[in-house]
Write a structure and sequence with these properties.
14 strands; alpha/beta; two-stranded antiparallel sheet; TIM Barrel; 12-stranded mixed sheet; 327 residues
Amino acid sequence: MLIDNHNRIINYLRLAVTDRCNLRCHYCMPSEGINFVKNDELLTIEELKILSKTMVDQGIDKIRITGGEPFVRKDLMDLLRYISQLRDLKELSITTNATLIGPHIDELKALGIQNINLSLDAINRETFEKITRRDQYDVVHGNMMRLIEEGFNVRINFIVLEDQNIQDIIPILKLQETYPVAVRFLEEMPFNGGSKNFNTITWNYKTILEYIKGFYPNFEKLAAPKTSTSINYKIPGHQGTFGLIPSFSRTFCGSCNRLRITATGDVITCLYGKPKMNLRSLLRDNYLESDLKAAIQYTIGNRAKTGFDAQREHKNVFQNSMTSIGG
């Protein structure tokens, strides 16, 4: 079992498999993209398998595959086949922009991978193309509807961007009126590759909720696990739910049970902090399982208590792009 220096059990790993993405969303990176790492700096599929098993052996029972866009990696399914068979793993899920998932939906279902987080910051075509700087609306919408119709547990993550997609909040919320999906609204975070700097946001989780209340005044708050990052609500008569994720306000830090490992092997114990260690050399230089486990235990034992504490430890943390730190 992994227990950090604040007596929190760490059982959830966000494992990035690439830093590359085929979209160019405003809030994530500049239009020209970022300097993606060289292929030989990325963990190989075999290294990701070793890492996954080691983490599960130490008590991780939930793994979320992230990127960049995970399906940019052509050998991703090989990794998913392996991880899905790890005996002590309770949940394997994927965060994706749904541009490339289509050909793999049948196999994902066969593997029992039911939880899909779909990053979608617009339901209107024009808004979508402005934010992503790409013409992929039909593909994304089609794959989203297929995932819903196939019975996947679809959670739509919508980052609320001032002056960009406010007009799409209520239209995308209507999806959960008809379909059993969770639409979750996230505060904008400043991890955009240096393309925009800010210390405050107008559209925080309270403002978002007040905006929704103007259209849907009747909703009830749902119970959630202590470690949940989202505050969830149900509108009577609707098939799904909606939620708010205070990713900038960081109200959930005290119960954090998450660990991030980037596609290059950096261990990030808090999204608002710098990497604490890199595991790639351990995996490549006369690999010993005991050394890998010891490194992970050491890192877990040196976590900041909150995102604000982590931010104070480092300078220029916001120069990173979200695609390079595991979503």
